[in-house]
Fold:
Amino acid sequence: MVQYPVASSSTLFDREFLFGELRLDAQGVLTRGNESIHLPPKELAALRLLLAHSGQIVTLQQLKQALWGDVHVTDESVPKCVSSLRELLSPTDCIQTVYKRGYRISVVVAGRPDDVPEPPPRLAIMPFSVDQNVPGYLGSAIAEETISLLTADRFAPAYVLARDSAFSLSGRGMTAHQVGEALQADLVLTGTLRMLPTHFRLRAEMIRVSDGTQIWVEDMLVAQARSADLESELANRLFIRLSATDWIAPRSASGTVSKDGPGRREAWDLFLRGHHEWQTMQRHRMQDGIVHLSRAIELDPSLYVAHIDVANASVAQECAGFVSPLQAAKQVRAAAEAVPPSVEGSEALLPALGWIRFHVDHDMPGALRAFSASAHLRHENSVTRARSMFALSRRRFIEAIELIKEAIRTDPYSPWLNARLAWAYHLSGEQERSVTQAEHALELFPEHESSNVYATMILAFNGKAERAISVAESLVRRSPHLDMGSALYAYALAQAGREKEARSMLERLQWLSRERFVLTSFTAAVCLALGELDCAVAELQAAADARCPWLFQMLADPRLGAIRTRTEVVRMEKVLERMEAEAERTNPNES
Structure:
């Protein structure tokens, strides 16, 4: 990593900065229009340093040295200071967290107003609606791949907003204009995909959010045998429409994909289907997605995006409890072996690989190397999932909370991000915040699995067992194959004093665990709520033996505090301590 020299104090105090809608003068007075914003000394010093190095990463060590010098402070001091600074600058969102590396200013910084170029328009891309005779996955798949093509190219003429928020709001029945307003977008792309006798017809419409006007329409006809060309054709037309300069062809985030030839076209179509299916939380659909991806790889082994998707899908499956951690690890390692590091976009594999190295291999140095090498990747579900699980499992709660908040700023209507933030507050001991955030997630996404999962645990633990039971009943009814849903339902029942029902559900899960893999980390809390401490310890031990992805978070879970001093549990905690110590010896700067 390039280390940039820190600007001297005299340089920082002599300069005026204009950034976004804010102005920081040479005397340290921050204003937004006619409003003056008071900055405490540490926050002012941090802001000056970040502005002086705009476009560059300022490391945690650089910030710590500039703000505190040689005075010893905790590792959490810098994240707390930056978090406080963000609150003071709000609603201006201009400080980007670069995972495991530091922070940087994400807006243009200038000395005079006429130096500031026009920012690119903020574009939201909706999943396309489809006719009855069109495969349902194609509308979403084409929109997703178009998003990928545009976000991968640094010359893209628009800033494309996160996929999850646009898709989530669309799924709630909001119109394109309403989605654009909710996401504060400038433009929204929507449209319809139809099937003609020999062709697909994609009618794409661009909506200007400020007044709801349809500013242009594109009609594309592509032969059904070449359906995989739709997204690249759409991306190309977007470049032409949105660019003020000559068109520059976009490239895929995972390298240029050749779709020529029947086998490769079929492989690409299977990849799109698989990519759509595995992102659900339904066991059979996720498995179907893996099958489609595997078949695509058989047809075209050089389709590296499919290998990467298999790795990310495997991590998602193990976290949901649908496959064992060892099975997921096998899939991730196979993908890592198949994708050469020289392939553009191969870094997208590293978060999944780093996560496997951590919780399956107990190889902390290897995990840190993988996460460090992929620190530049922007938020995507698979990337942020692995990063947040890693930080929470290591008890880096402030880091995890900042990471999730940063992703929410990019993707404000992502159901699982909003729910995961409640879980991070819960693990960090911030009970009031965890309950408030869990209720917020439920209000936004009342039927999403993530909202239901985290809210059930948090509400039941904080004296709202009846509310938790209602949420869990809805979850189990909609997702009967989600074992963790049954475990959480049992926990809520036990917290409400309905022990007989809770025991019945617990016994069913324990019986199922003899037949197939079942996450036992979540059943430990049920045992404890029923007063069975030995059972709780045994369930945690089974989770440790299986390399459960949730184990280290559960060891920090306030719900399991009553058994934290048990010899077996202390032994499990020592595993994490040894891993951290090994990382510190191997590379103290990364740990």
Observations:
- The chain has 26 helices and 14 strands.
- The radius of gyration is 25 Å.
- The longest strand covers residues 213-223.
- Residues 1-13, 112-116, 244-257 have pLDDT under 50 and may be disordered.
